[in-house]
Amino acid sequence: MNGDIHLPVTTAEKAAYREHWAFNSSHFKQQGCYKWMAEQLLPLQPTRVLDIGCGTGEGILALLTAFSPTIISLEENGNCIDQSYKVVSSAGYSAEAIFRLGYQEFSDGTHDMVFSQEPIVTSSQVSLVHADLLVDDPAMLNLLAECPPFDAVTIWLIGTLKTRATCRNLSNLKIADSQEYRLRVQNRVYEFAHRVLRPGGWLQVVDRGEPPASEALRDDVLESHREQAKPTDLEVFDLHYREYTEPAKKGIRMEASLGTSGRTADLSKLAMISVLSRKR
Length: 280
Hints:
Blueprint: H1 12-30, H2 33-39, E1 48-52, H3 58-67, E2 70-75, H4 78-90, E3 95-98, E4 101-105, E5 111-115, E6 126-130, H5 138-146, E7 150-156, H6 178-196, E8 197-209, H7 215-229, E9 234-244, E10 270-279
Parallel strand pairs: 1-2, 1-7, 2-6, 3-6, 7-8
Antiparallel strand pairs: 4-5, 8-10, 9-10
């Protein structure tokens, strides 16, 4: 961890999240979901990727297997960074874990998040950076401003609110539920993609939800992303999906986002939904 912070880099709930998410990611990998997500970027052949949320490393490994790009991944959960580092380095890739967030826990179960302001220096093919998109973090913003433009920004299967509701730094946002949390994170990612993508670069957002098997459902999903893209110079241009199953017993429960219609989703079947946007 950077030397100006002397606090634990994790909390018990973050360790629990990593443990539970490992069941999801293993189940998804067995179904070929991560390989499929990476394949959506085949026409682009990205060599530089900004990844949001490394999970337990299976997604990063899929990108490396498909394209061998340089990857900077921003992840708030230090336990996920630790696991992803093990997965990526065990596969023979050069990786580094840059821990720079500390947590001060309180007796009521909440915590403050403190972040280092030492410059972030990356030097490996995969850099796993301890950072939170939802807070004002000048060092993280400086890192992205000083990096060469990225070919792709990826955000796959963003986590839920549960383990963030106890973070005092986010209390001013008054996030009510996991759907609002996901929307706020994705809105920030659209803003970041607007700043860091090269012209013609792609943003890929992958969510879980009802299969958009009809034209109306497809339009509903696309319109929700067009709303998010409005403040940016990104153009939503493509959607693909594939059906999958959730783990039967353990894991993080999937909660579907509503589209612009506000209809209740039919989750008798589930799909990974990949939406692509292009920087003009």
